[in-house]
């Protein structure tokens, strides 16, 4: 018997607000433990939560970007469970009436285009963080840092539409790109601002009944998600083939060992004793607010890729690379608007600019070569003022100094030699000094032509127009 995997994901994305979801404490990462806390996020008796307006708007935009219907009315509920990182003894979340529902996402998986249905998007507060010290049971200590408690989250829940670990990782990566593009989430998985739970089950191939699922919690990288799901699929298949039974449970991924390990039996919804939070009224979104958020939505990556291909003539590969981030895409468009030819701008961005930024550890927004300066450099190449080889040196100087290309070319005397009489003189001198190479060319050894071109360019200190050199050298050799 063969089996197929059935996978659904729950993505937890912290919203990029300055303050927490129900109080005014900062959400900044990296503060000393318990520096960003107050009676509200610590759950002191008698305090009242107040919903963060900006968090709601970010959640609305994320929902719209993945095709969800934003619900006019949603309700915050108390999800009751007891764990040290939950100071109130319950988490404020949404359950029966979420913020949004019934969406879908299209993405490219390892085997081609895929579509995943989105069940719901709901808002909730994050829990705190446990800090462990020591390894042996006798000296092991755990401390609680509640800085993260109360940070606004959205949870994006998919239908069980994924069938492979590779598709799961590709979907997660695609979704991260959308959330970062919108400015909803910073995408920093190492800091825990974006993480994923995977619900994994297997069933005999060709059947439609769902198998018993195991939930693998808190996966904070695409690679860990793929490896955890791959292991879990194999574990469940092996268990069934041996006549065993898959238990519904929550598991953790041990990245060092590459295995999932049991954490606890999986809770059902009734175990959490959900009920509407009596301190928070229903969230009512009128049509004007929903439409205002729709109007504020930027062009999404897929639409921009399509426009780059259809409108600017870029290859699919270039368009995909240039829409990896919104900042990269905006830089490209600004350079084209400043006069740069789209393909030339793309080539330089993916080549020299990307290499230089990687070496210096800077992102595109901190580039000393601004879009208009890159367009200016490309204009000098197009006009024949400098050669492509010289342009690379000019670009390095631009990155180091922030100067414009025209100023560097003028100051260093780098203007390309295009005068025919000058180039003819250089060619004559090279022919005279390289009689053997000339004889070889005339005898049919065409490779020597490149050598002679190189000698002319060397004599011109790289400033001769390469096309003119090729044309005039060929003419000179044919008339000897």
Number of domains: 3
Distance between the termini: 79 Å
Chain-averaged pLDDT: 93
How large is the count of helical segments?
15
Please state the structural category: alpha+beta
Radius of gyration, in Å, reads 30 Å
Ranges where pLDDT stays below 50 over 5 or more residues in a row are none
E-strand count: 16
Molecular shape: elongated
The neighbouring-strand order within the major sheet is 2-6-7-10-1-11-12-13-14
> What amount of the residues lies in strands?
15-25%
Helix content: 40-55%
Main sheet makeup: 9 strands, mixed
Features of the shown structure:
nine-stranded mixed β-sheet, Arc Repressor Mutant, subunit A, 480 residues, 16 strands, 15 helices, elongated, alpha+beta, 3 domains
What's a concise summary of this model?
The chain is an alpha+beta fold.
Structural topology:
Elements: E1 3-14, H1 53-65, E2 69-70, E3 73-74, E4 76-80, E5 90-94, E6 100-109, E7 112-125, E8 129-133, E9 141-145, E10 152-158, H2 165-182, E11 194-204, E12 214-219, H3 222-241, E13 249-254, E14 259-265, E15 275-276, E16 283-284, H4 287-295, H5 301-312, H6 316-322, H7 326-337, H8 342-360, H9 371-383, H10 388-401, H11 405-412, H12 420-433, H13 435-442, H14 447-459, H15 466-478
Helix pairs in contact: 2-3, 5-6, 7-8, 7-9, 9-10, 12-14, 12-15, 13-14, 14-15
Describe the structure.
By secondary structure, the protein is α+β, with helices and mostly antiparallel strands. The chain contains 15 helices and 16 strands. A nine-stranded mixed sheet has the order 2-6-7-10-1-11-12-13-14. Helix content is 40%, strand content 21%. The protein is elongated and about 95 Å long. The chain folds into three domains: 3-289, no CATH class; 299-412, no CATH class; 420-478, Arc Repressor Mutant, subunit A (Orthogonal Bundle), CATH 1.10.10.
